[in-house]
Amino acid sequence: MAKSDAVWGIDIGQCALKALRCRPHDTESKMVVEAFDYIEYPKILTQPEANREELIREALQQFVSRNDIAGESVAIAVPGQSGLARFIKLPPVERKKIPDIVKYEARQQIPFALEDVVWDYQPLVGSEEEGYALETEVGLFAMKRDQVSRSLKPLEEAGIPVDYIQLAPLSIYNFICYDRLDVSGPYDAANPPKSTVVISLGTDTTDLVITNGYRVWQRSIPIGGNHFTKALTKELKLTFAKAEHLKRNAMKAENPKAVFQAMRPVFSDLVAEIQRSIGFFTSNNRNAKLGDMVALGNPMKLPGLQRFLTQNLDQEVKLIDQFNNLVGGTATAGPQYKENQLTFGVAYGLCVQALGKAQLHTNLLPEEIVTKRLVKAKKPWAVAAAALLLVGLTINYFGYYATLASANIDGQMKQQLAAATSAATAAKGFASELATLKTDFEGYLKTGSELQSNVDGRLLWLELLKAVDAAMPKDTRKPEERKADEADVAKRPELHIQTMDCEYFADLAPWRASIAAYLPAAAPANGAAPATGDAATTGGGAAPQAPPAADGTAATPGAPAAPAPTAEASSTPAAAGTPTSPDSSAAPAEGAAGAGAGGWVIELRGYHLHNNPPDKKDVNVGDEGGQFVKNTLIKNLKSGKVTLPDGPNGAPIEVSMADLGISDPVIVTSEKVKAVTYLAEPVESADGSTPMMPMAPMPTAVPEGGVAQPGATPAEQLPKTLKLRQYDFIVQFCWQPKPRGDRLKALASKAPVPGGATAAESAPAPPAAAGGTPPEASSTAAAGAPPAAPVPAAAATPAAPPAAPASPAAPAATPVSAPAPAPTPPPAAPSAGAAATGGETTTPKPSS
After folding, report:
1. What is the C-alpha to C-alpha distance for residues 273 and 279, in angstroms, rounded to an integer?
2. CA dist 838 to 171, 360, 547, Å?
3. Where are the beta strands (DSSP E) in 159-204?
4. Which stretches of the chain score pLDDT less than 70?
5. Which of 183, 353, 361, 683 pairs as cysteine with 213 (C-beta 3.0–4.6 A)?
6. Are 697 and 781 within 8 A, CB to CB?
7. Residue 718: predicted pLDDT
């Protein structure tokens, strides 16, 4: 139902319900009173035996029965002590930022969570300059949600929809500004207009409102008409009802003097509170000037109260016996209106706000109620729109149905429908067949992948051995170009590998942590070149200098080897000579990488003689000691390449060490270069061939000049000896196998070949698991690696790590998890293992 232009202002007081019905007047500054109502309760709500809810409910039912409020806005007032009012002065700030600042101030000023209160604000005075608000004062008003619900409940039960909720003191402010003050023009803070003091004496409280029209200050004094009644009850020993009747008819009492004497303490308390409040206001507002002092409320009719206030406040207190801007006709001519006119000030202010003529238009009605009413108001329109849509759809349906009914499905149409049905059935059959073929294809693809994984597994260790061989430095000279002297032997770029061990770790992180101390330090800031190998010893018998450690620092004699990973992180070492191989459940898939993944740790133990001879000061071999190992083997394991048949049609191409899964090579020992004596005479091998330079250290010292000790072999029978310097080392690196199939797939995705085909289509298929020998299997094992490393059996599960071959060069291999210091050179007649010398395998002659 459409709203009318009339509004109701309802003030539910402690003693009676007061209501005014107003509408706009032809003159903008006036309103017309069309109706009023004053319903006094049988008992005051604060009496001990009074039922507050029941009394209010009965009064509202009586009000609804006597007045028609349908389609009209309703505004109600709540007592000032039920809410919170704060007036905040803001610093100069942009106008658009005022809401954010007010919200922040609300959190500081309101002693409850903002979710538990209904609050609103309004700027009162201030000026604006270049978008900045200056000297702005904001009124902040709040009320707890449960109190709002308690105030709305009786009106909802009576069927009265509420549109505005306002605090009673603020309604009085709106009434005074509209009816008594001229609020126009800018506000001058230095010379403000006079302020009117309004004393609204209620049943339980007195609302003191001081305003000049631009600013407002209010306080609720906890003294009202009931306090006079209670004083009579106490002093004269009367019931509450008799005391109330005596208060209203004090001049007709048998002893009026006794009545006023009993009420005198309340008079004094009221005046004291009013004086204290006015004093507080003037002390905080130095420029404020007090003007008229007016009074509202039926308790002001008490004989002698107005005169008592005038005498003690030193200013005349006037009763508001008429409303200047409220035009009343026959509705206000009755005696009930004139008798209770002092009580309609709050209802008058509510009507002013509901008609949009108020200075302060804050509203404490919860937003959810407003939203609910908006939705309810739009429901009829939504239902009407849905009904129209339904009618349109119905008409559309019957139109299409008529067209369908007119179609002839006999004859040719029927045949076409049958053909379409047959085609749909055939399509379903093809879809089912396609699903079966896809399932079979996926099975074949899985089987082929497993077969290829098995073939790739057979090649992994062969590729590793070939990679180690490719990383070893070699003397490329022909055998006949070599000489059996200290200078020639020391200059040979050869490493002699004695043992090659391996061990699998389910998690490589502990091993990487254990080798951290042996990794190279950061380059010097001044750009100085890193330290090179050990300098050659000078002078006969001088001790050689300590070789640099793996990190580039000087080695410490007797320094321990790399710390082993913890027992929890490493696998359990196998028996001597057998590398550890974890079960397939603990091993990751082949080709897995990452710091937390598993892999093999390969250990190479050996030595080299590429050091300046002790007695040859004119010989300079360049890098020596650990630096020679780092610049050859370590460097090649990091960035070197190995030739493998991974190209199109099995063509050999270079594959990087990283693509094979080799990483983190490091020297895990800090040994000194030491002086040794070697036999230099060549010996014949079992097949009759003569290696050019077998190397075997002397088991005992041989004096210079070849003079034998008593009981030894004659000097002329002793072979020639060489005085050299030897560096023992242990190298470890990580190997996370990357099968050949994975490498070919990666290569195919990166390098398309001419003709539109990819590299994967042109690449050779891996050899079958059951037939033939892979090309890599026929390759010669790397020098320094085991001469006949067994090919690991193809793993049944691709995720299992490849099995490690036994170390053929040492009958009792040391587990990688606990590397020991480098061993001393073997005796002249070593065990079955052969010394790898840069790609040549030789057997030294036994010493005599």
Report:
1. 10
2. 106, 100, 22
3. 164-167, 195-201
4. 1-3, 407-412, 452-453, 521-596, 680-719, 751-848
5. 183
6. no
7. 54
Beta strand 93-94 with 132-144: parallel, antiparallel or unpaired? antiparallel
**So what's the pLDDT on residue 521?**
61
Whether 446 contacts 798, CB under 8 Å? no
Distance CA 652, CA 775 (A): 11
| Token pair 């070599």 in the structure block, residue | 482
Question: What's the token pair of residue 49?
Answer: 């035996």
Identify the pLDDT of residue 746: 83
pLDDT at 429: 93
Give the contacts of 420 (CB within 8 A, at least 6 positions apart): none
Residue 222 to residues 18, 41, 615, Cα–Cα distance (Å): 21, 21, 115
Q: Whole-model pTM above 0.90? A: no
Contact between 798 and 589 (Cβ < 8 Å): yes
CA distances from 224 to 45, 270, 809 (A): 13, 8, 112
Nearest-angstrom CA–CA distance, 674 and 543? 8
- The residue assigned the tokens 């029209």 is 213
pLDDT at 812: 35
SS3 content of the chain, % helix, strand, coil (to 5): 35, 20, 45
Residues 6+ apart with CB under 8 A from 273: 206, 221, 223
Burial pattern 158-197, b for ≥16 Cβ within 10 A else e, equals bebbbbbbbbbbbbbbbbbbbbbbeeeeebeeeebbebbb
- The C-alpha atoms of residue 247 and residue 253 are separated, in whole angstroms, by 9
Pairing of strands 164-167, 73-78: parallel
Number of residues written out for the chain: 848
pLDDT per residue over 262-291, tens digit each?
A: 888 998 999 999 999 999 999 988 888 888
Contacts of residue 33, defined as CB under 8 A and 6 or more positions apart, other chains included, come to 20, 21, 22, 326, 327, 328, 329, 331, 332
Q: What would you measure as the largest C-alpha separation in the chain, in angstroms?
A: 162
Smallest CA-to-CA distance from 764 within 454, 469, 455, 466 is with 455
Q: By the 8 A CB rule, do 353 and 330 touch?
A: no
Task: Check the CA dihedral 133-138-144-148 and report its sign.
Answer: negative
State the virtual CA torsion across 815, 819, 825, 828 in degrees, nearest 10.
-10
Residue 172: its H or E element: helix 168-179
SS (H, E, C) 636-675: HHHHCEEEECCCHHHCCEEEECHHHCEEEEEECCCCCCEE
Q: 8: how many CB neighbours lie within 10 A of its CB?
A: 27
**Is beta strand 696-697 parallel, antiparallel or unpaired with respect to 653-656?**
unpaired
Q: Supply the pLDDT for residue 796.
A: 32
Neighbouring-strand partners of residue 18: 11, 38
User: Among all chains, which residue has been given the structure tokens 């109706």?
Assistant: 35
> Which residue in this structure is represented by tokens 């009117």?
196
Q: What is the pLDDT of residue 697?
A: 52
Report the distance separating Cα 550 and Cα 815, nearest Å.
Answer: 21
The set of residues, in sequence order, having a beta carbon less than 8 Å from that of 766 and lying 6+ positions away, is 452, 455, 456, 740, 741, 774
Beta strands in 41-103 (DSSP E): 73-78, 84-89, 93-94
Q: 367 near 30, Cβ under 8 Å? A: no
The answer to whether 632 and 624 are in contact (CB under 8 A) is: no
Directed axis angle between helix 412-471 and helix 740-750, to 10°? 120
**Smallest Cα–Cα separation from 832: which of 686, 712, 714?**
686
Provide Rg for the chain, Cα atoms: 54
- Which run of H or E residues covers position 140? strand 132-144
CA dihedral 62, 64, 65, 68 (to 10 degrees): 150
State the amino acid at position 491 in one-letter form.
K
Strand order from edge to edge, sheet including 31-40 = 164-167, 73-78, 7-12, 16-24, 31-40, 326-328
pLDDT at 643: 93
344 secondary structure, DSSP code: -
Question: Cα–Cα distance between 205 and 401 in angstroms, integer?
Answer: 76
**What is the pLDDT at residue 774?**
37
